[in-house]
Specification:
Elements lengths: L6 H29 L9 H19 L3
């Protein structure tokens, strides 16, 4: 019985890991329900601004006839 002292730490670690998974999935499903699609990971305000800028530049280039 002396060699199983680590076993008493497994249950709390399992509970903590399970709660982290629940919290992450809750964020995913709440965002999906609110916006209709999953959140794109790593897409912050800067990325959105650069996408708008790139789209505008491409439209200006194609409108110029090139």
């Amino acid at each position: 019985m002396a060699k199983l002292f680590w076993l008493e730490a497994v249950l709390p670690l399992g509970i903590i890991a399970g709660m982290l998974c629940v919290m992450g999935n809750a964020q995913y499903y709440i965002h999906k329900a609110a916006h209709g699609r999953p959140k794109h990971v790593g897409n912050d305000v800067w990325d959105v601004a650069m996408d708008r800028r790139d789209k505008k530049i491409v439209e200006q280039y194609s409108a110029a006839g090139n």
